[in-house]
Structure formats: structure tokens, C-alpha cells
Design a protein that fits this description.
By secondary structure, this protein is an all-alpha fold. It has one domain. The chain has three helices and no strands. Helix 1 crosses helix 2, helix 1 runs parallel beside helix 3 and helix 2 crosses helix 3.
Length: about 100
């Protein structure tokens, strides 16, 4: 079982990355309603917090920079990337479902 620990700095980096990813996503793909915005924002933040560590590690290893980054930087980047990906994925699926319903 993974040890989530109680390191406040890592949790702050994880949350900041998730919020940043969700905020940047708002700029690129505007929601059509407040409900859609809230659902996608909460999904983005949740995915950023949950999948930030693995996503950050994967990105750092793929780019070959894992030896140059600290744990908080990896979590920040991974949380932002996971949040951004979740926002886009949910947005695309919502719009596809809307078209199929018509």
C-alpha cells in the first residue's frame, strides 16, 4: 500500500499543481454552463491530486530529467498535467455525448 505521508510541502505542491492545471484548462476550453465548469473543475482537481505523483514521475523519466528535479517539482508538474488531461478528456467526452444525443 502506498504511503501518502503527512508532508505538508508535498501536499501543497500536489494541490497547487492540480489547481493550476484546472485553471489553465479554463482558458483553453471554455465550459458552456456553470454546472459543466464545476464538474470539470472538480474532476480536474481530484485527478491532479490522485494521479499527480505517477504522472510527474512518468513525465520526468520520459524527459530524462528526474535526477534534476526534487519531489515537490515532480508533484507540481504531474498534478498540473493530470488535472489538465482530465479536464480535456471530460470536456471532449461531454461534447461528444451532446452531439450523439442530438
Amino acid at each position: 500500500m502506498a504511503d501518502l505521508g503527512n508532508d505538508g510541502g508535498l501536499w501543497t505542491a500536489r494541490l497547487a499543481g492540480a489547481l493550476a492545471g484546472a485553471a489553465v484548462s479554463i482558458i483553453y476550453l471554455l465550459p458552456k454552463s456553470r454546472r459543466e465548469a464545476a464538474c470539470r473543475f472538480l474532476t480536474g482537481v481530484t485527478c491532479g491530486i490522485v494521479f499527480g505523483g505517477p504522472m510527474g514521475l512518468w513525465i520526468a523519466l520520459r524527459l530524462g530529467i528526474s535526477g534534476h528535479l526534487g519531489p515537490s517539482e515532480i508533484l507540481l508538474a504531474g498534478s498540473a498535467a493530470a488535472s489538465l488531461s482530465a479536464w480535456w478528456g471530460l470536456g471532449v467526452l461531454a461534447r461528444f455525448a451532446e452531439r450523439m444525443r442530438r
